[in-house]
Design a protein that fits this description.
Strand content: 15-25%
Structural class: alpha/beta
Strand order of the largest sheet: 1-2-4-3-5-6-7-8
Radius of gyration: 20 Å
Order of helices and strands: HHEEEHEHEHEHHHEHEH
CATH class: Alpha Beta
Number of domains: 1
CATH superfamily: Alpha/Beta hydrolase fold, catalytic domain
Shape: globular
Largest sheet: 8 strands, mixed
Length: 268
């Protein structure tokens, strides 16, 4: 029986590999869907409007934008939930004088489309150009977790110009992160979307802020440190002691928000 099992082991392994290949999008993009009506209702409750318009929205813009904004911040959220779950970014950054747009990904919320790195980048390049044309400079990116990878990939596409980027709980490469989680799999050969943030940011000349949760259980801190060490200057690092992936200091009253924006502005 043992000999039979050993002979069958490669077959079992192949089955695992095939299953993981076909499940990867579901694992990476647990997209939360909402109806258009529910999306509009929640936006109104949070004093947001669909941007640039209700019919073909790409994000949400606050109804309470400062009269003379210091700039515009495009927020790239993590892989769970929707952009409407990230109202705390508006609460934190709007009082500092910024226009904040919570970007939504294709296939999330009420948006059509299938999530993928290519689909995200194409869509968010267009959103960035729209924001630049509509609001002018300065224009900043802020991405968290998957959103940090998406923001980096959007910069790496090469056709958008922004004035600074903040990456919260980021990785250097999604393939490196996934390989650490599944050391028994040939991850680099299996993954369709690889979000190579180090490569995407290697030629970027603007200021880069990196914030790492010391006890991050989803994206271990070492991957954020690897990214930061590889980045060109100007750059600045924040490490939040004792924080986990979802318990870093996101509260609007945290002083680090002001430190973050002062750094991004001071290097322009």
């Amino acid at each position: 029986m043992k000999k039979t099992f050993l002979l069958q082991l490669p077959i079992y392994y192949l089955i695992v590999v095939v299953v993981m290949y076909f499940l990867q999008d579901l694992m990476l993009y647990p997209a939360s869907k909402m109806s258009q009506a529910e999306t509009e209702k929640q936006a109104e409750q949070n004093q947001l409007r669909l941007w640039p318009n209700e019919k073909n929205y790409q994000g949400f813009l606050s109804e309470n934008v400062p009269s003379v904004p210091k700039g515009t911040i495009l927020v790239f959220h993590g892989n769970a939930g929707t952009a409407l779950d990230r109202i705390h970014y508006v609460r934190a950054l709007e009082p500092l004088g910024y226009r904040v747009i919570l970007l939504e990904y294709p296939g999330y919320g009420a948006r059509s489309g299938k999530p993928s790195e290519q689909a995200f980048v194409e869509d968010l390049v267009a959103a960035t150009k729209q924001a630049s044309e509509e609001f002018g400079k300065p224009l900043f990116f802020l991405g968290t977790s998957l959103g940090a990878g998406v923001a980096s990939a959007t910069i790496g596409e090469g056709s958008v110009i922004i004035d600074g980027v903040a990456l919260i709980t980021p990785w250097d490469s999604l393939t490196n992160l996934a390989q650490s989680m599944y050391p028994f799999l040939p991850v680099k050969w299996l993954m369709r979307d690889q979000y190579e943030s180090t490569t995407h940011l290697s030629q970027y000349k603007g200021p880069i802020a990196v914030a790492i949760a010391e006890r991050d259980e989803i994206v271990p801190a070492r991957f954020g440190h690897k990214l930061y060490d590889a980045l060109p200057h100007p750059k600045r690092l924040w490490v939040f002691p004792g924080a986990a992936h979802n318990s870093w200091p996101a509260h609007p009253q945290e002083p680090w928000w002001n430190e973050l924006m002062q750094f991004l502005h001071s290097n322009n």
